[in-house]
Amino acid sequence: EKNVCTGIVADSKDNLFFLSSKVNKPYEIHTLHFRSKEIKQMTFINKNLLEKTDFRPAEEMWIKGAEGKPVHVFLIKPHDFNSQKKYPLILNIHGGPQYQWMNSFRGDWQVYPGAGYILAFPNPHGSTGYGQDYTSAISGDWGGKVYDDIMLVTDSLENLPFIDKDRMGAMGWSYGGYMVNWLQGKTGRFKCFASMMGIFNLETFWGVTEELWFPEWDLKGNPYNSKNYNQYSPSEFSENFKTPTLIITGEKDYRVPYTQSINYFTVLQKLGIDSRIIIFKNDGHWPSHIKSMPLYYNAHLEWFHKYLGGGKAPYCSKKLIKNIQFNN
Q1: What is the DSSP string of 215-281?
Q2: What is the residue range of 64's domain?
Q3: N or C: the chain end with fewer CB closer than 10 Å?
Q4: What's the domain count of the chain?
Q5: 136 occurs within a structural domain
Q6: Which residues are identified as catalytic?
């Protein structure tokens, strides 16, 4: 059985301790004895939860991507899945971009299938885990092979008999948010977008990020000596924008400052495109505050329900914002 292992530590008695999980199995502590190779599960914190909750598993696909390279894709089907029905699709693009989706537990992997969506999360060029050449291919090519991968993955997914190609949305965070913004100016095949902590204007992003070395490495210089900033900036393609977009950001995000999202929202509003922005006052590059998470997921479910027709959100986001949702 394939599991994802993290938090690995060793003791002086030939034991290795680690956290193990899958998309449908929350983390538990396990131990491996070096000599006997025996693996034991040490904690059962989620036993009762697993017995009464239908955590959806991930299926794996390999799809031919840019330059013929295989792209690893995970697919999660909703509860009571029926292969004879058509389901809306949400494509989730990871950040990094030097990162990878894995068959590991995340709460959001259950949120969207729980509302009746097929959830797909691919590892396009730039992802780790598939060789250094594959990872390095994104440097200097932010809107190139990754975009091609996403389009080819979408081609394959929409041909699956149980996916409704007229109800497809895309979402992403950080670089994934950037790629969603890039899709906005490049394709009209998605019915809606959700862009979280994403870059809109690469030139202004360079001047304000606290991680200055990164764009200068990945975009091969600065805006004054590298054409990549202009060539791959979503802001340069605003004349093509037409897709409704939910934007979420954090006021204390110093990696991708929230002004990037405000800039994007302003452009969408000026163009008359349905859009919504939520700015978390006390959050940074991820809405990690305990009061932020319900609104974060609820806003997505509202947006996707509006444009893709999945299940309704459990709460009213406006009431969550006003802190009156749970008043008696």
Answers
A1: HHHHTTS-TTT-THHHHT-GGGGGGG--S-EEEEEETT-SSS-THHHHHHHHHHHHTT--EEEEEET
A2: 55-321
A3: C
A4: 2
A5: yes
A6: 174, 253, 285
Same domain, 45 and 79: no
Give the count of alpha carbons within 13 A of 175, CB side only.
24
pLDDT by position in tens, the chain (length 328): 678 888 889 888 888 999 999 999 999 999 999 888 889 999 999 999 999 999 999 999 999 999 999 999 999 999 999 999 999 999 999 999 999 989 898 888 899 999 999 999 999 999 999 999 999 999 999 999 999 999 999 999 999 999 999 999 999 999 999 999 999 999 999 999 999 999 999 999 999 999 999 999 999 999 999 999 999 999 999 999 999 999 999 999 999 999 999 999 999 999 999 999 999 998 999 888 888 888 999 999 999 999 999 999 999 998 888 877 666 5
CA–CA gap between residue 102 and residue 172 (Å, rounded): 16
Asked if residue 275 and residue 156 are part of one domain, the reply reads yes
Q: Do 165 and 84 touch, CB atoms closer than 8 A?
A: no
Does 326 reside within a domain? no
- 233 shares its domain with 290: yes
The CATH number assigned to the domain holding 62 equals 3.40.50.1820
Q: Do residues 141 and 42 both lie within one domain?
A: no
* Residues 23 and 138 both lie in one domain: no
Please calculate the CA angle 54-57-58 and round it to the nearest 5 degrees.
155
Same domain for 304 and 176, yes or no, is yes
In a shared domain, residues 87 and 17 = no
Helix axis angle, 145-158 to 175-186, nearest 10°: 70
Q: What is the Cα–Cα distance from 310 to 166, expressed in whole angstroms? A: 13
